[in-house]
Amino acid sequence: MAETIVARVVSKWRGLLVYALLYGAAGFVSDVIYYRAHTTPLKLYAIFLQASLSFYALWGQWQLLSMDRDGDEGWPPFWK
Questions:
Q1: Nearest CA to 33 among 25, 24, 22, 42?
Q2: Among 75, 65, 68, 73, which residue's Cα sits nearest to residue 6?
Q3: What is the largest CA-CA distance in the chain?
Q4: CB 53 within 8 A of CB 26
Q5: For residue 1, is pLDDT > 80?
Q6: CA–CA separation, 64 vs 68, rounded Å?
Q7: Burial label, 3 (beta-carbon count in 10 A; 0-12, 13-18, 19+)
Q8: Burial class of residue 43, CB neighbours in 10 A (0-12, 13-18, 19+)
Q9: Per the count of CB atoms within 10 A, which of 23, 36, 43, 52 is most buried?
Q10: How far apart are CA 71 and CA 40, in angstroms?
């Protein structure tokens, strides 16, 4: 089973890299918004932004590792 997971990660490294970068960028941007915001709605927006983008990135990684679809070995569609 571990060999199968490693084989999927190696074959789908581009998509996993893009989702990992999106996850990291979402955390950085939302932290900047949160700490620069002087009002509560902006702080809530930063929290919502980080939560939604983090969920999207983790969901994309899960789909890449759990399913096989055509084009998974290439770059994700929104990256092209």
A1: 42
A2: 65
A3: 50
A4: yes
A5: no
A6: 7
A7: exposed
A8: middle
A9: 23
A10: 42
Q: Cα–Cα distance between 21 and 56 in angstroms, integer?
A: 12
Dihedral sign, CA of 61, 74, 1, 24?
A: negative
10-48 residue pLDDT tens: 888 888 888 899 889 988 999 999 999 899 999 999 999
Q: How many CA atoms lie within 13 A of 18 on its CB side?
A: 16
Across the range 2-15, mean pLDDT stands at 82
Distance between CA atoms of residues 77 and 80, nearest Å:
6
Q: What angle, 0 to 180 degrees and rounded to 10, lies between the N-to-C axes of helices 2-11 and 40-66?
A: 110
- Provide the residue type at 21 as one letter: L
DSSP H helices, 12-72, are 13-36, 40-66
